[in-house]
Amino acid sequence: MSRLKLLRCTVCNKVLFTNVEAWYRAEQAVLRRYVGRLAASRGVPQSILDPDDVVQDVFEALEIALWSVNNPAGWLRTVAKRRVARAHGKMRRSSADSADEYLVTGRAVLWSSLVDPDPDIEELLSAQLVWELIARLPNRQRQAVYLEYVAGMPRSAIAERLGIAAATVGVHAFRALRALREALFSNQDAVDEEAEAIKRALTPWRPAEFADWGATWWAWTWCPCWSGLPEKTEITHLMR
C-alpha cells in the first residue's frame, strides 16, 4: 500500500492543498463572482441559477475530468459559462415566443457540429431533440413551422404551397411552436443527464491519486499564502 508524501509550502511550511482541492481553494470565490456577473448580464436571476450551486457542480465535474484537463482555470470558466447558458436557455424556453429561435439555432448547431472537432454536447443534443420533436408534430403543424421558421418562406408562399389560407398557416405554426416549447422544457433535464453521461464516457480513465503506480506522480498544489494559481508539482509515493 502507498501513501502520498505530504507537500509543504516553501513559504509558510503548511501542508499544501492538492489537485481539485487546490483549485477550489484558489478559484472558488473568483468563479462565484464570474458566474454572478455572467448570469446578471443574461438576465438570469438567482432564483433560477444560484452561483454557489454552479460552483459546486463545476468542481464536482472537475474532479472527474481533472486528469484530462491541461488548463483547469480556463476549463472551470468554460464549464461554468455553459451552466449559465443552459439556465438561460431553460428560461427562454419557458416564454411563449422562444421556440422559433430554437428551430433556427438547432439547424445551425447541427451544421456546425459537422465541422467542429469539439462540439458543445448539450447544444448538440438539444438540437437533435428539436428535430425529433418536429417529426412528431401533426402533418400541417410540421409543414407550417418548418417552412416558415427553418426554410424561411413567407406565409403567403406557404399558404399557396399547402393550399390553405395564410391565417390558417399562422394557426398551425402557433400550435406547433407551443407544442415544441412545452416539449423542450419538459425534456431538458433528460438532455442534461444524457450530456453528462456522454462526457463521463469520453473522459479518459486515469489511476487514482493514491494508487501504487510507479515511484512518482504529479499534483496541482496550492497554499493560501501564494498569490498565484496552483502549480503542477511532481510528488513521490512512500511505501508502507
Automatic annotation (TrEMBL):
Coiled coil: none annotated. One of its GO terms (molecular function) is DNA binding. The keyword Plastid does not apply. It holds the Pfam family Sigma70_r4_2. Residues 128-180 form the RNA polymerase sigma factor 70 region 4 type domain. Keywords: DNA-binding, Sigma factor, Transcription, Transcription regulation. GO terms for biological process: DNA-templated transcription initiation. Belongs to the sigma-70 factor family. ECF subfamily. This is RNA polymerase sigma factor 70 region 4 type 2 domain-containing protein. The lineage of its organism: Bacteria, Bacillati, Actinomycetota, Actinomycetes, Micromonosporales.
